[in-house]
Structure formats: structure tokens, C-alpha cells
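Lecture 7, part B: from sequences to assemblies.

Below are the input chains for today's worked example.
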Amino acid sequence: MNIFRLAGDMSHLVAILILLLKIWRSRSCAGISGKSQVLFALVFTTRYLDLFTSFISAYNTVMKVVFLALSYATVYLIYMRFRNSYDSENDTFRVEFLLVPVIGLSFLENYSFTPMEILWTFSIFLESVAIMPQLFMITKTGEAESITNHYLFFLGLYRALYIVNWVWRYHTEGFFDQIAVVSGVVQTIFYCDFFYLYVTRVLRGRGKMSLP
Amino acid sequence: DEEAKAKDEL
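Predicted structure of the full complex, as C-alpha cells:
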């Protein structure tokens, strides 16, 4: 464990909590893509199957349980508790356009052709595109509430910190996970456009930000 | 066990 990865995991946790608390406190999920949240819950489900088979550390196990619980709680709030505020007209990204390539690629490119390994690879590739429905929804509605922007900012920060973590681990322990790194870089690139807008607009007090 | 070790990231 290094400070970059710890900061990344904390930033990821903050992002998930920001969104969950925003929905719970405003009792509304307007402007939030339920599809992205379902994809994230699927990412955690397919990645953390080793929760019961391999023990890495208490931190690892606790964080996996927390991420699974919070992501399912978010999906529950969007599709059950506050479903009348779910903006389904604007959450129209065709997730099958994401799932089909990701499933195909995880069968082609993996470390070993075993169910656990293919599911893990699937979760890595899926995570890199899971935010697309949310970014698509923002371009469609033309704007994002500041809380949604903060959520996306911390999510992007988590990915950027993981890249720094991989550089650090490569130089200190020769660690290099090609699938995770390539997929993580692609994922971070999706946030670059958002990062630019976030810094130039949202941080200047204009609470609402509209993507081009 | 190297595989399991390698997957120590969230």
C-alpha cells in the first residue's frame, strides 16, 4: 500500500458517499444516471468475487464490503426509493454498446481463461466505460448540478491517483498489471474533458456546468 | 498465490 493508492481509494469512497448522501438528503436522483450506477455495482460484484476466497488484508476486505454495500444502496435509492425522480428520458445511453465489447474483450484479453479471471478482467474493462451514461446524460440535459460535478471530480481524482500509484509501484517494486493500467489510463482520459470544464467553470463559483 | 497477491488493489 502506498499513499497514492490510499488517497485514491479514499477519493473513490468520498465520490460514492457524495452521491449517495446527495440522493438521500435531497430525496431525489434528478440528473443522475441510474445506468452508470448499475454498471458500477456490476463492476464491484464481478471484481470482488474473491472476497471469500482470498484474504489480502483487513483494509482490502473492509473496503470491498463497503464499496459493494454503498453501490447497491445507491442503485436501490435510484430505482426503488426515489424512482419517481429518476430522469429516465435523459438516461438513455445504450449500455449494450458498452457490455458487448467489454464482454468480448474480456474473453480475448485476460491473464488466464478461468471464470474468476475473466470476470475480474470484465470488471476492469467495464469500470473504464461505466461513467459514459452519466457523461452522456450531462451532455443531453446540458448541465450538471454542482454535487454531480463534485462526484465526477472525486471519481476522476481516484483514477488519476491510481495512475500515480502504478508509476510508484513500478519503480519501487516492479509491479505492473498491464490490463489494469491500460484500462485505467483509458478511463482517466474520459475524465480529462470533464476536469478541464470543472476547473475552468465550476471552481469559479458557477455552480452549474454545461458540457459542450 | 502470485495471482492473488497481484490482485491486491481494489
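Note for the exam: The radius of gyration of chain A is 17 Å. Keep this in mind when comparing with the next example.
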